[in-house]
Amino acid sequence: MNSISVRALLVRGMLAGLIAGALALAVAYFLGESQVDAAIALEEAHSHDRGGGEELVSRTMQATGGLATGVLVFGVAVGGIAALVFCYALGRIGDFGPRATAALIAGAALLTVYVVPFLKYPANPPAVGNPDTIGKRTTLFFLMVALSVLLAVAAVIIGKRLAPRLGNWNATIVAVAGFVLLIGLSYAFLPSFDEVGKDFPATLLWEFRLSTLAVQATLWTVFGVVFGYLTERLLTPAARAATPRTAGAVS
Predict the structure, then answer these.
(1) Tell me, what's the pLDDT at 58?
(2) Distance separating alpha carbons of residues 113 and 148, to the nearest angstrom
């Protein structure tokens, strides 16, 4: 692709990320914030420190402006990154059109960037987790993200190299099996954290984690649909316009 096409796709990726972020924000606000409020209420009820200082940022601001800024900026950022990945992947991962390629990238991003790390280090609401281990838990989560992405890329490369000898179907099975095996070993060897208090409601914890998963699923699903539509409108008309000229030249 030339620089103009890459720039146009980057803009469309960021726009699709903004739209996806807006819908994910709605899911986060209506599904997730009630669980956060309930967890904060539990934390305050069990706190022995009643003389805490004044809040630097109010809870209302956190649940509105802070949440909106975080989700929308994240959506634009990952949309731009996914657009650059799309520029490289289009035509290199198989005979897929723009929409199918966008959908595959969005699905792979949801799986590798969130679902795989989430299964090892799930999100926790306030009042869950030891403050002394938050740095270690954050580092291990991002390590799991990096491992998941790198192993997924390696699986794609290995699958393409095995395809001429094994066929596409068998090569895909081998690549996926290798990915699952190595992720399972990562789960086994990386440390785990069981810091949920016995008095913390299991239902609240489950609903909070489902809401975080719903936010990410909404973000990447909407991004895949919107970005696929925008890229097809950008790339397909040029190919269709070239076809009549080619046919006229032949005749």
Answers:
(1) 66
(2) 7
Q: What is the largest CA-CA distance in the chain?
A: 87
Residue 240 in this model has a pLDDT that exceeds 60: no
Query: Which amino acid belongs to residue 146?
Result: A
pLDDT at 56: 60
Q: How would you write the chain as a 3-class SS string?
A: CCHHHHHHHHHHHHHHHHHHHHHHHHHHHHHHHHHHHHHHHHHHHHCCCCCCCCCCCCHHHHHHHHHHHHHHHHHHHHHHHHHHHHHHHCCCCCCCCHHHHHHHHHHHHHHHHHHHHHHHCCCCCCCCCCHHHHHHHHHHHHHHHHHHHHHHHHHHHHHHHHHHHHCHHHHHHHHHHHHHHHHHHHHHHCCCCCCCCCCCCHHHHHHHHHHHHHHHHHHHHHHHHHHHHHHHHHHHHHHHHHHHHHHHHHC
pTM of the model as a whole: 0.81
Quote the tokens at residue 5. 């096409």
| The two three-digit tokens of residue 156, written as one number | 């794609």
Torsions phi, psi for 229 (to 5 deg)? -65, -45
